[in-house]
Amino acid sequence: MTTDPAPLAGTALTDRVAVVLAVPLQAAFGARLIDPADPAAGVEFEVGDLAGNGAGGAHAGALAVGLEVAALLAALPALSTAEHAVTVSTASTLIAPATHGGTVAFRGTLDRRTGRSVFAGAVATSAGVTVARAQIVKAVVRYTGA
User: Fold this and answer.
1) How do strand 83-94 and strand 129-142 relate by DSSP bridges?
2) Number of helices followed by number of strands (H, E) in the chain
3) pTM (2 decimals)?
4) Is 72 left (phi over 0), alpha (psi -120 to 50) or beta?
């Protein structure tokens, strides 16, 4: 008889969020939780040199990273300690520029969890303006640790 893995909550969730934020790409952008008490609220980072596009705005790739992380953070509470979710499809729209030196906030939503898939959305805002949106599909896979 096997038991179901525990839900990803409490210390296990906090530890997994730390793993997500320690990924070198996220760490290089300076991604930090918007609300440390609520990781699912998303992340934010400043548009600095690494996140810049060379023309005074945020690089599309930097925005994609933030959208991806926000979607994952929104999905984590729907997973068990034995699961992780990896992106298999992304559709994004860049709506407005995020200026160099400004902060971009990325907030995700869990739209649906099926047996092996997660469907999530994410929105990026800067200075009260929506700058990007994404729909992200993730495959639920076995978590093998950091």
Assistant:
1) antiparallel
2) 3, 6
3) 0.94
4) alpha
